C-alpha cells in the first residue's frame, strides 16, 4: 500500500489523537490534530454544547484539504486525527489527493460515552456524542479497528498494513 497521508477517523472519544500521535511517532511522520484547525467560532459553538453543521465545517474541511495537499506535494508524510464523519467530508479531504488512507476507529456508543464523560477541559461535551453517532456514515474503504483493542495493537496493525 503506497500511502503518504493517513487520516485516523471516528467519533469524539474514539482515540483518534492517541492512536494518531503514536502512529506518527512509529512511522517517523508528522502528526496533526484536526481540532487545531477549527475556527474560533466553531470551538465556541462546541464549547457551548451546540453541534456543528455542514456550513460550520466548510472552512475547517478546506483548511484540512490544503494541509493534506501541501503535505503530499512536498512529500512530507503525515497522520491526521480527524472525525471525518460523513462520506462527503471524506471526499472533500480526498479531492485531488492521491495516497491518502483512512483508519476508522470503531466503538460502541456506551464505551465511547464512558471515555468522553471522564474528559476534563475539552470543548467537546459528552452530550454532543449522540449527534456524532447520528452524523457518522461508516466508511466502506477504510481500515477499521475496534477501539476495545489496546492502542499498541491498533498501531501495530496499522504499521503492518502501511509497510
Architecture overview:
- This protein is α/β, with parallel strands linked by helices and 163 residues long.
- The chain has a single domain, classed as Rossmann fold (3-Layer(aba) Sandwich).
- Helices cover 47% and strands 15% of the residues.
- Helix 3 (54-73) packs parallel to helix 4 (87-94).
- The chain is globular and about 40 Å long.
- The termini are close together.
Record keyword descriptors for this entry.
single chain, 163 residues, alpha/beta, Rossmann fold, 5-stranded parallel sheet, 5 strands, globular
The radius of gyration over CA amounts to 15 Å
Helix content: 40-55%
How many structurally independent domains?
1
For the record, give the distance between the C-alpha atoms at the N and C termini, rounded to a whole number.
7 Å
- Let me know the number of strands: 5
Q: Can you list the strand order of the major beta sheet?
A: 2-3-1-4-5
- What is the averaged pLDDT score? 90
What is the CATH-assigned architecture?
3-Layer(aba) Sandwich
Amino acid at each position: 500500500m503506497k500511502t503518504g497521508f493517513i487520516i485516523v477517523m471516528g467519533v469524539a472519544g474514539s482515540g483518534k489523537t492517541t492512536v494518531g500521535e503514536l502512529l506518527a511517532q512509529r512511522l517517523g511522520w508528522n502528526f496533526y490534530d484536526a481540532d487545531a484547525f477549527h475556527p474560533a467560532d466553531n470551538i465556541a459553538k462546541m464549547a457551548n454544547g451546540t453541534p456543528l453543521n455542514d456550513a460550520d465545517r466548510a472552512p475547517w474541511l478546506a483548511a484540512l484539504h490544503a494541509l493534506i495537499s501541501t503535505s503530499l506535494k512536498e512529500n512530507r508524510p503525515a497522520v491526521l486525527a480527524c472525525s471525518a464523519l460523513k462520506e462527503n467530508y471524506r471526499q472533500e479531504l480526498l479531492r485531488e489527493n492521491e495516497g491518502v488512507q483512512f483508519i476508522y476507529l470503531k466503538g460502541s456508543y456506551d464505551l465511547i460515552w464512558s471515555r468522553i464523560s471522564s474528559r476534563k477541559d475539552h470543548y467537546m461535551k459528552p452530550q454532543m456524542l449522540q449527534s456524532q453517532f447520528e452524523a457518522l456514515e461508516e466508511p466502506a474503504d477504510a481500515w477499521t479497528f475496534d477501539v476495545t483493542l489496546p492502542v499498541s495493537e491498533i498501531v501495530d496493525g496499522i504499521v503492518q498494513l502501511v509497510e
